[in-house]
Design goal:
Blueprint lengths: L3 H22 L4 H7 L7 H16 L1 H11 L7 H16 L4 H11 L5 H22 L3 H5 L3 H10 L4 H8 L6 E4 L6 H10 L4 E3 L4 E4 L16 E3 L7 H4 L7 E4 L6 H9 L3 E6 L2 H14 L4 E4 L14 E7 L14 H4 L2 H18 L3 E11 L8 H9 L4 E4 L9 E2 L8 E8 L1
Parallel strand pairs: 5-6, 5-8, 6-7, 8-9
Antiparallel strand pairs: 1-3, 1-4, 2-3, 9-12, 10-12, 11-12
Helix pairs in contact: 1-2, 1-3, 1-5, 1-6, 3-5, 4-5, 4-7, 5-6, 5-7, 6-7, 9-10
Length: 425
Amino acid sequence: MASEQDKTSQNISAALAADVLSGVLFGQKLTQSLEAANLDRQSHSTQGAVRDIAYGVLRYRGELEAILGQLLQKPLEDTGTHALLLAALYQLTHTRAAPYAVVNNAVEAAPRKFRNLVNAVLRNFQRKQAALLSAATQTVEGRTNHPAWWVEKLQLAYPGDWERILEASQLHPPMTLRVNCRKASVEQIMADLSSVDIDSRQTGPWAITLDKPVPVGKVPGFAEGKVSVQDAGAQWTASLLDLKSGQRVLDACAAPGGKTGHILEAADVEVTALDVDESRLGRVQQNLDRLGLSAQLKTGDAAHPSSWWNGQPFDRILADVPCSASGVERRNPDIKWLRRPEDIRKFARQQSVILDALWPLLAPGGKLLYITCSVFPEENAQQIQAFLSHHADATRLALPDELGDGQLLPDETRDGFFYALLQRV
């Protein structure tokens, strides 16, 4: 039987998770909503429980909303209670939490005037669970846990792969390390991981994927800058840029600095790390400090170089541009629910402006690497086709066979990314 302290902790977790989810239902990013919840004031177990519930609900929100819609006679006007019911339904359907505890915690966490409703809805779900789950799959959102418009876009773009993309997006993301070749080898890091009973496998030239994620504080060599956490799909940057010692390199949208660090690990180059948000450049500096590397950090808008560029051309430019993040949604499950179709068009326009603005900064013969973490063609292949159509001095270079046309789709080993390498002729 759970102790009174355990019961109190569970009640707190249910209430906090509902608060966090309420923020997302109101249009707030999950990271912002979690920060607003001040979870650092809670125990580690409560923090973990709240995060697990919040991420879980957003991963399965389509199914959960379809179930809740069957159980309510009319939509709930109280967003907090709506979020609380989603959290409870997630626990009842996708976790091993004791059903009686889930129901009791939800009832106690609910506003007094909604407690009878919460109790009735959850009890009714328990009685009709199989039928409700079956009925939920009859809708696109209930079946795929994605907005219908998102599914339609994937079906049009990838008629043979859209289901696989959606399935991969529901998986828990792998934890992959990038080895700092200046400080260690892949073999050394794998041996260090094995010595503390962390199983891993090599998944790229400098990539090591852990069999199970662990806190970064438990990763040998992380604090010393021997490794960084970076998805395997994101680790192509340094090799594709074809870096040579002494080159001037612009990382045009640098924060939080993962790719900046990788560039400096790979070659002795002069890097300007640019970001429009000065506060986010602090993250870049922290990453560089841990790695023992340095770059010139500059606050500025990549779309408006006149405010920060000194007129000296760059040999290499990395344009890891703002995008829908549709390729990394499993790490940010709120994205699919916060995005709207018009957002994709806005990102595409922004990307076009940035590409046009950065191109004159590239020296003749120089290379620009365009990257998104998106799977939508408007931001990727179509963007590059449009750019090439009105830049006669640009040519698109072939990528390694492993990258094909540059569109990496998410799977169990990596997130989704797009790469295009352009050279100024």
